[in-house]
Amino acid sequence: MITMRELADGIGTLLAQLGVQRPVVAGLSMGGLVAMEMALERAFGVAGLALCATTAQSVTPQEARDRAARAAQLESEGLLPLALDMGGRLFGPAARRDPDLVGFILDMMVHAPPAGAAAALRGRALRPPYRELLGGVTVPTLVVAGDSDPYAPEPVVEELVAALPGPTVVRLEGVGHLPNLEAPDAFNAALRAFAERA
């Protein structure tokens, strides 16, 4: 198992080794949870926080059970069952018509190390109540969300936005859970503009 805080610590160590000070941190999906950890810990010196296709929802007992079961399945069967389960829901309408993009993502998922994916699933089930903590973030924030993302639908996005102190919000039409790949020009423009302001 690896927690979101442990992942954040690893990124913080790398940034320190590279001599990066006051980073603007962006995280997508589970990466958003890691980015939240970095912004909540002042020692990382984060200058801005961009949260993309992610959630601040608390873990429910059912989610914890589901993640534990899925982690065990990954260890015994590999990534194919997860890729098949998630594959049809990751993408928005436009991306579903792009076989190269869909094939690239599914291939990457299938060939990821099962042990690492299982460890991350277990750690994600132990995440803290970010919704209650994000009010303490003191740096500029950005939320990027696709309007066709079943993993971060509008109620989840609204909850995240409400938990943050005055975020900039960018909604991308026809985009699912991978806005950086489904709408790269709009996504990159939003992050670049935010980073320059932060």
Concise overview:
This protein is α/β, with parallel strands linked by helices and 198 residues long.
Characterize the quaternary organization of these chains. Answer: single chain
Averaged pLDDT, please?
94
Order of the strands making up the biggest sheet:
1-2-3-4
- Rg of Cα set: 17 Å
How large is the count of helical segments?
11
Number of strands: 4
- What is the chain-wise order of helices and strands? HEHEHHHHHHEHEHH
List the uncertain runs: none
Q: State the major sheet.
A: 4 strands, parallel
Distance between the termini: 33 Å
Structural class: alpha/beta
> What fraction strand?
5-15%
The rough form would be described as globular
Can you put this structure into words, describing what you see?
By secondary structure, the protein is an alpha/beta fold. Helices cover 56% and strands 11% of the residues. The chain has 11 helices and 4 strands; from the N terminus they run H-E-H-E-H-H-H-H-H-H-E-H-E-H-H. The chain has helices spanning 4-18, 30-40, 61-77, 80-87, 93-96, 99-110, 114-124, 130-133, 154-163, 179-182, 184-197; strands at 24-28, 48-52, 141-146, 168-172. Strands 1-2-3-4 form a 4-stranded parallel beta sheet, with helices on both faces. Strand 3, helix 9 and strand 4 (168-172) form a beta-alpha-beta unit. The radius of gyration is 17 Å and the shape is globular. The termini are far apart.
